[in-house]
Predict the structure.
Amino acid sequence: MRMRSSVVAMVACLALPISAAQAVELEVTHWWTSGGEAAAVAEFAKAFDATGNKWVDGAIAGSGGVARPIMISRITGGDPMAATQFNHGRQAEELVEAGLMRDLTAEAKAGNWAKLVNPSSLLDSCTLDGKIYCVPVNIHSWQWLWLSHKAFAEAGVPVPTNWDEFVAAAPALEKAGKIPLAMGQQSWQTSGAFAVLMVALAGPDVFQKVYKDKDAKLAAGPEIAKVFAAADNARKMASQSKVQDWNQATNMVITGQAGGQIMGDWAQGEFQVAGQVAGKDYSCLPGLGANEVISTGGDAFYFPKLDDPEKTKAQGQLASLMMSKEVQVNFNLKKGSLPVRGDVDLNAANDCMKKGLAILAKGNIISDPNQLMTPDSLGQINDLFVEFFNDPSITPQDAQKRFAGIVSKAE
C-alpha cells in the first residue's frame, strides 16, 4: 500500500507543469494594510503568481515608520526578504552603499526605464554612482484636501473650494457636531500636513528652499510664520480628532463625521473601497485649492542580494513586471496614485486622479521631503509637529524657532 502511494505521488509530480515545478517563492515586505492598499498590492501579487512563481506577502502593520526599522534590521542582520518597499528618496541609501541591495541596471536598460519614467527624478532617486537599485512603482502626492459632501450638507454650508473657505466653515461644522479636520496621531501625518500647508500658502519655491537648500533664515522668516499660523488653525480644527491611523481619519471623512482631511492621494483607495464617487460623495482639492501642484513622492521596491540564483532571477522578473504597462495601470487605479510610466492610458481614472494627471502633464511638480532630507532630519521634524499638534501651550512662534533650528542642521 505504501509503495502504491509512492508511485501515485511520483506520477502526480511528473504530471505537474514545468513552471509549477520550478516555481520560486519570493517574500515581499511592505506596509500596505488598509483596505485600499491591500486591494492595490494584490495586483502585484496576482501578476507575479501568473508567471508561475509565488508572491509571499510580508505585510507589516503600521506606518512606514514602524515597518522600515524592521525591514532594515532583517537586511543588515542576514535575514533579507526578496523585495521590500521603501519611499522614493534616501531611505535605503545606506543599505545600497553597504552593498546589500541588488543592482537592477540590467533590468532598467532592458525595459527602457530611463525613457518611460516620468518625472525622471523618480529614477534618479533609485540611482547611485550610475547604477539603478530600485524600481519606482507610483507617484504619490501629499498635496490634497479631501472633503466630505455629507458633512458640509449637514452643517448647512457649501463645500469649500480652498483652504481659507475650509477654515471659515469650521464653526458651522463644529455646531453640527462634526470635527472640522480629521487627523491621525502619527507624527508623519502632522509633519506631512505642515509641508502641504507650506507649499499651498507660501509656494513651491519657498518649500524647495527650506527642504532642499536647508535655508534656515527663510525657515525663521515671515513667510514661514504665515504657515505656522495656518498650522495653528489646523491643530485647533483637529483637536477632537482622536484616531491613530491615517485611514481611520479618512473613514471619518467618508462617513461624514469630519469635514475634511489633509492627506496624500492614497486616501483615494479608501474612498473607492467604500464605494464613494469623486465629485458626488467627496471632493478633492489639489494644493488645498490655493496652489495646484503635486509632489513626486511615492513608493519604490528594492531587492536585497540573495545567495540563490533562482530567487535572484525571479527578483529580476518581479522588478520588470512592476514596471510593465498593464501592472502599472491595475495597481495605480486601486492605489489612488499616478503611474510612473508616462505612456499609460488611464481612461478609467476618476475625477481626482485626472486632476493629478493634468497637473503632472503641466509640469507643476515638486520633490517629496523624503527626496530632499535624510530620514534622521525628517524624524526630528516629525517629532516637532506631533508635539506641536498635541500641546496647545507650544506657540507657533516657539515651534517655528525650533523648526528653523532643525533646518539649519539638516542633511
Remarks:
- The radius of gyration is 23 Å.
